[in-house]
Fold this protein.
Amino acid sequence: MIPDPNAASNDPLGPLDPDFAVAFRRNDRRPPCQLYLVSALEVGGDFSDRLARALDAGPVAAFQFRVKDVDQHRAAAWAEPLQRLCADRDVAFIVNDSVALAKRLGADGVHLGQEDGDPREARTLLGPAVQIGVTCHDSRHLAMEAGDAGADYVAFGSFYPTTTKVVRHRPDLLILSWWATMFELPAVAIGGITPANARPLIEAGADFLAVSAGVWAHPDGEAAAVRAFAAVLGGEG
């Protein structure tokens, strides 16, 4: 299922020019699209074993630790073994929502929603080397604001239906082509992405595919899912 180009957008800049989709060609100097793995909803129990299997199955650029409604002490206890797995495999460890938890863990980065604070303040607290990403939904305006505030990447979505979270924004693929044409800052595509529907996002210009259920709920297991994504991403050229 390809996102509807006529879907309503909350972008104050108005509708995108459909010519971007026709004329878009990925710049050869831009790195190939990569997999950005987002944690399952449950990160206790045997999840560290599942993460290890996923990371060992194929290339993963980053892992986002995302938990909800958990106090920082418990979140840190769950995060620490997962962070070690990522460090051992040279995978960036990104904390979702919480600048305080990212600082406590010495994480490689933090991902901020629109209600999670200013990237400038996060930069002041976390330092120049930490990667800061910002959720921008379906809005070029929010993405440009994030870039001006010093974000290291922007995230657009949800591109496809997902059960991981409530979907309020459905951007068109055009936003990825427009962004890659206009800016060097990487763009992450998120929302309901599977090996079967990833190709249009890659061709549209996504720099990273943020995937959760597409790996953790894969019928053949997380390792098979990562191998399937590797096959799709490896064939992008």
DSSP finds ten helices and eight strands in the chain. The beta strands are 34-38, 62-65, 92-96, 109-112, 131-135, 153-157, 187-190, 208-211. The longest strand covers residues 34-38.
